[in-house]
């Protein structure tokens, strides 16, 4: 592979950690429906679309709803979630994330966001790093969820860089699979035993260097 030219970042768990807000909003919904679920169960919802997450949660509670009711519940959960993320501050950027973004930009790499979230622009604005991205691709621009590579392929297209010169940063196995099936290099953020198939695994962007990026 030729030297990478672009970095595509997932948002949740890579740049910021909004999982806690998703958990609070989903849990509030579950409680309203008369049941509860744990943080461990919540891990299963990582990188999964809103409606798919809702189906899993309703299944945990043994609750069945029509499609129309599910849309209403998903909208309600999102309203609660948005209410929480609009109070986010730059302090919530994960360690090393802003610094690494600044480093790659300073070294002429192109950057894109590749996230399933439909609220990514709000989050980036709140934490003050929108200017560090050349392209934003999120749930408003794509319809297929990871492990489908659509979100990353659209990101590569918007940056005008071939997929084999893109490096994806992901914290979920579905995201690693999406990057690889899109013909890209993948850096896993988290644990190596979980993120199988990644070309490199680091605990966080704090551990990333230009040398590691260039040697992929």
UniProtKB/TrEMBL annotation:
Gene3D superfamilies: HAD superfamily/HAD-like (3.40.50.1000), Putative phosphatase, domain 2 (1.10.150.240). The keyword Isomerase applies. GO terms for molecular function: beta-phosphoglucomutase activity. Keywords: Isomerase. It is an enzyme of class 5 (isomerase). The keyword Cell wall biogenesis/degradation does not apply. Its EC number is 5.4.2.6. Belongs to the HAD-like hydrolase superfamily. CbbY/CbbZ/Gph/YieH family. This is Beta-phosphoglucomutase.
């Amino acid at each position: 592979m030729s030297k990478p030219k672009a970095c595509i970042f997932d948002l949740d768990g890579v740049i910021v950690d909004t999982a806690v807000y998703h958990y609070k909003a989903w849990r509030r919904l579950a409680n309203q429906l008369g049941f509860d679920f744990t943080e461990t169960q919540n891990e299963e919802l990582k990188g999964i679309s809103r409606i798919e997450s809702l189906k899993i949660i309703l299944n945990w509670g043994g609750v069945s709803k029509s499609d129309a009711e599910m849309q209403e519940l998903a909208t309600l959960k999102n309203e609660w979630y948005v209410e929480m993320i609009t109070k986010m501050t730059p302090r919530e950027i994960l360690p090393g994330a802003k610094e690494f973004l600044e480093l790659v930009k300073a070294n002429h790499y192109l950057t894109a966001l590749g996230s399933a979230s439909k609220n990514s622009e709000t989050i980036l604005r709140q934490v003050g790093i929108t200017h560090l991205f050349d392209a934003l691709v999120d749930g408003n621009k794509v319809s297929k969820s990871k492990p489908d590579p659509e979100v990353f392929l659209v990101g590569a297209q918007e940056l005008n860089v071939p997929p084999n010169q893109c490096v994806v940063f992901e914290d979920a196995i579905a995201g690693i699979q999406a990057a690889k099936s899109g013909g890209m290099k993948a850096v896993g953020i988290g644990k190596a035993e979980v993120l199988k198939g990644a070309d490199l695994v680091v605990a966080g962007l704090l551990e990333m260097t230009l040398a590691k990026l260039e040697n992929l």
